[in-house]
Each structure stands twice: as structure tokens, then as C-alpha cells.
Specification:
The protein is an alpha/beta fold and 404 residues long. It has helices spanning 2-10, 29-42, 85-98, 116-124, 142-155, 167-177, 184-193, 202-214, 230-242, 252-259, 282-293, 310-316, 326-341, 359-374, 383-398, and strands at 15-17, 47-49, 55-57, 75-82, 102-107, 131-136, 158-162, 197-199, 223-227, 273-274, 300-304, 345-348, 379-380.
Length: 404
Amino acid sequence: MPEVLEACLEKGAAGAEIISSGFSELGTTEGKDLEKKIQEIAARGIRVIGPNCFGIYCPKSGLTLLPGPDLSRQSGPVAFLSQSGGMSIDFAHTGKWMGIRFSKVISFGNGADLRETELLHYLASDPETRVIAMYIEGIKNGDAFFRAIKEAARIKPVVIYKGGLSLAGQRAVVSHTASLGGSRTIWQSILNQVNACQVQDMTEMAQSCLAFSLLPAKEFKKISVIGGGGALGVTACDTAENFGIEIPPLSAALQAKIEAFLPQPGSSAKNPIDVANPYVRPRALQEVLRLAAQDEQIELQIIIPLLYHYKPLAEARGKSVAEITPYKELAFAIHDIVKETGKPVIAVMPNPKKGADDLDILEMLALARKEFLERGIPVFDEISDAVRALGNVNTYYRKEGFGK
């Protein structure tokens, strides 16, 4: 490997990716010496990503991660740094499904030359990146790393998933990327100080990135929730309170106007608004959103269309689920409301039916998600996911002078 890198340097190459493993992560003298040779060559004028990595994915230029997954060519505002190659692939695929668009995904592995600190500095000043996400297992220069996070977080949100916080995880980190993990308490304390958003798993990281990338850069203290079923509203209230988000009652005058669009017995025009009927027409829901937005204290709205209920409706009409497409009209209606009111809307599409007999529902929900995302509407699977992501957005923008 050093001979190949030497040849690249002689040919005038500005950079190289070393995908191969077998370096310092082995913990052997041979592996460490091999990585040291890479560092010595790099210091003479060629920048190196790796070794023990999957490289770089950049949709704009067409550069992709190895082993060459089918990733989107649409660029976007989210950058992702990962010590783990597997995590970089998984997160890129998750992002494609969830509607996250990437500026860059960088798997840097052992970081023999370019490490997380330099990459953070680069992304902090990158005009194509508005949100930085990162999977990190361990660091070699703690002071420089946390200075880099502090600098980046002042400019744009930084979402950190720290692996190896348990004792077993710390042992795994050493063998995976030859890094030192660090304790849970220390990481939580330092990340709180620099106002980085620490998440507990890849799912929360993706959900937070989606919210940061599609919502306006501000805190949303008071929201409305519109859906079918009282339990969903209760869950929304309980979860929102955990994150310091209020779901205040609407005025009596607005409630009276909203009730005109909710003829179903058992409905409620308070906040949360219970439409008590999964088949409420999209235009009626649009009017409910429009009226709720008239309340000055409401800054954001969450709508919960129970689309999985359309399967029995389709069967009753002798049609397939694919032929019942109210979500298209609803996506357009919500887009118009956001444009008209200036207040963002989050969609939640729960689906308790995930058996082998319900693949048609999963397909419909995937198509619905696509329709909503194409119109800039964030989509989450559960109300708790949406509120947690919104809570992370609020925590970041609550501090004066961050990301503004």
C-alpha cells in the first residue's frame, strides 16, 4: 500500500482513498508501522482518507462510497462524517428512504491523515452544507476535536451519535477503529457545553437531520396537532411536555369555526384536534390547518393522516390500495397552507399493519412519503419521533447566537 500511495504522489495526485484494512486497528506493531508510513507519505503533499474506510459519497460530483451502493444523485444540505464504513452506507441508505439529501458523506476510518477535526473545520465553512451529522467512536486529540465542534455548532447544527459509551462498546471501539472511546458522562457534558445535538442511535440521528434540513432555523415553542384518535393526541401532549413544547388550547372562536369541518361524533376542535374519522377529505383537513394557523401562538403544526385505514375502504369498493390516493391531494393542500401561512407542517404516518399481507399498505405509505417530501414536508413514522426531532431542533436554536 505505501508503494501505491507513493506512486500517486509522484503522479501529482492531490488526494487518495485507502479502503483497505489491516493497519493500526489490528493493534499489532506491523499494522501501526504500516499506518505510520502512510502518514509520512501524506505529509509530503497528498491528502489521504482512511485507511479502513469506504471513502466519499458526493452526489454533485458523482463520487460514491464503496462497495458502490445505489444512492441518490440529488444533492442536499446534510453532511455526514463517519469513522465506520458500514455506518456511512447504512446512513446514506436511510437518508435516501427518509428524504434526507446529502452534500457529502465521508467515511474516514482510522484517519491516518485527514481526521474528524479537519473534516469538521471544512464542513463548517462549506456553503453546500447546512447540517453536519457525525458518527464517532473515539478521538485522538480531544481538545482540538471539541474546539472544532464548538466552532462548527456556532454556524450550523451538529448532530453527534457517539458509539462506544458502554464498557462493552468501548472495547469494541478499540478493535474497530483503533480509537479511545471515553465515558458517557464526559461526552454528554462536553457536547452540552458546545450545543451539539447528541442522539442515541442512527434512527434519531436521521430524524433530527430531516427536521433540521426541512424546518426553518428557529425554535417552535407552541404547536397544534391534528389527527384521528384521542390516544394520538394524548401521546403528543405527553411527549411534547418532555421536550418543553406546548400544545395550547385554541380560542373558543377558532374552535367553533373548526367544528364546522368536523361533523363526526366524538371529534374535538380543541388542541390536539381530533377529527375522529380517518376518511376526512383533504380539503377539509386543509381548512382545519388554515384555521388553526390563525392562532398567533401556534408556530408549527403536526398532522397525522391515518392512511393505513384506506385498505378496507379500497376493498369495500373493489379496488386495490394503489388506486386510493388521497395522499396526493393532501400533500398539495398542506404545501399550499405552509406557503399561505408561513407556518411549517410536519406529517406523521403511523402504520400498525406490517404483516406479510399488508405489503400494499407499506407501498402506499412509501409513495405518500415521497409525495410529501417532494413538497418540503417532513414525514415521520410516529408522533414521538416527530416531537423528539422537533425537540432537538428547539434545543439547538434556543441558545442565542447559534445557527443564525
